[in-house]
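Q: What changes when heme C is included in the input?
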Amino acid sequence: MRLLVIPMALVTLAACGCAPDPKSGKGFSLPEGDPVRGQQLFSDLQCTACHTVDGVQFEQPENSEQKMVALGGEKFSVVTYGELVTSIINPSHRFALGYSDTDIKTGDKSKMRTYNDELTISQLSDLVSFLESHYKVREYESTQYYPYY
Ligand code: HEC
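A: The predicted holo structure follows.
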């Protein structure tokens, strides 16, 4: 009987689509980064030319033509770890919400430049830990139903 339970469970998992897709990001994780080094890097790599970060004051270039894209703070959509990493290494995979296309894209490409040939994995981990510590995940607010009189 026992022997049957496991194959049955696997069949059920596969049938309901609960088994992770082989291309799923599940299981992906960078080594622990250092948020203090990350903040320094954020300014050294000039991410500050195009971004503000909630709760941090950076020297921002004056009269920049580039529309600032705000990072951190409360987001309506949950910013997952995977989304954060992907936004840095593959900016055009999806676009920040709440901006007009011309402010953030050129054609179908993000205006964010590629750092992939200059960032080390350690630097990427540090940047992600720094940014992660400035995102506040908004709590889910359930709908309020009032008594009907
Ligand atoms: C030349 C301007 C520019 C620079 C420099 C730049 N970015 Fe961006 N970045 C953008 C734009 C524009 C977007 C919005 C479009 C998109 O989502 O790709 C963006 C999006 C992002 C997002 C996703 C935001 C969201 O809410 O979806 C993250 C995270 C990010 N950048 C991190 C960085 C980091 C870290 C650096 C430095 C290593 C950096 N950026 C440098 C222009 C820039």
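Observations recorded in class: Residues 16 and 74 are 33 Å apart (CA to CA).
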